[in-house]
Specification:
The protein is of the alpha/beta class.
């Protein structure tokens, strides 16, 4: 079986995938100040990665895995040792790990890919797996009603702005990021209730289907776990999070399921 990735994304050689599965997770927010015990969350997520290691043919981390990540030239953010070590372990085991950046971890540059072997995608990707077509994205900035956010996103991606931010002492830069993270979470705290007919990403996916067919749209960002049928054979999947829900997606070659991790 071949796994093909379009949109100028990374492609890799065919591997033995008989009986193996593809896993999806998003919104872990490692290091978040809103976690009562950030280390406990990191350990839980690493334990999950270890538990799927033997039957995973690929893993997709669909954004906001970190609550904040910015790579300075001579320093990296404190913490995340267990998670980074596990990424290296998965790479050594020849399991491709795809990292689609979210709005909280868009500043992944070359350190994590070069050190751990993850395959970083800065934009949504289109993937064909076992004959089914997947559109995979964190979910931020796709819809028309996000003009303010998209302006901010352009600033965040601007190399000059990144250069100036890099000159801030990490203690200051990370503190600013923590304040922004809290404000971002407060502004979205009342937007977690699922009302399918009001879901912007669902509307966006329905419009996308008019131009190109997909079996699955895989999104993070919403912190809600839901499998929604939008056409006869097309579904939108919200992966949930690892803040309160601890949910993930599994594709076994024939079926897609949302599951919950319990240690």
């Amino acid at each position: 079986m071949n796994t093909n990735i379009n949109n100028n994304a990374h492609s890799h050689n065919e591997i033995d995938v008989n009986g193996k599965k593809v896993y999806f997770a998003s919104d872990v927010h490692l290091g978040s100040p809103s976690h009562k015990n950030p280390l406990e969350i990191e350990k839980k997520f690493v334990n999950w990665l270890e538990s799927i290691k033997n039957d995973a043919k690929e893993i997709y981390l669909v954004g906001d895995i970190f609550d904040f990540w910015f790579e300075y030239k001579k320093a990296i953010p404190r913490g995340f040792t267990r998670f980074i070590s596990k990424l290296c372990d998965l790479n050594d085991a020849k399991i491709p790990v795809h990292f689609i950046t979210g709005n909280h971890d868009i500043w992944i540059f070359d350190y994590l890919p070069s050190e751990t072997g993850i395959i970083v995608h800065k934009k949504p990707i289109i993937v064909e797996i076992d004959g089914s077509k997947f559109f995979i994205a964190h979910g931020d900035g796709l819809t028309k009603n996000e003009k303010t956010y998209n302006i901010m996103k352009k600033i965040f991606h601007n190399r000059v702005a990144q250069w100036f931010f890099r000159w801030l002492h990490p203690d200051i830069g990370i503190k600013i990021a923590e304040i922004w993270s809290r404000q971002s979470r407060k502004s979205r705290s009342d937007n977690r209730v699922l009302v399918p007919e009001k879901e912007r990403l669902v509307d966006w996916a329905i419009e996308k289907l008019k131009k190109e067919y997909f079996d699955f749209f895989i999104f993070g960002h919403r912190h809600i776990e839901k499998d929604m049928k939008i056409k006869e054979k097309s579904r939108v999947i919200y992966l949930g999070d690892w803040v309160k829900i601890f949910s993930y997606g599994v594709w076994d070659g024939n079926n897609f399921e949302l599951k919950y991790y319990k240690e």
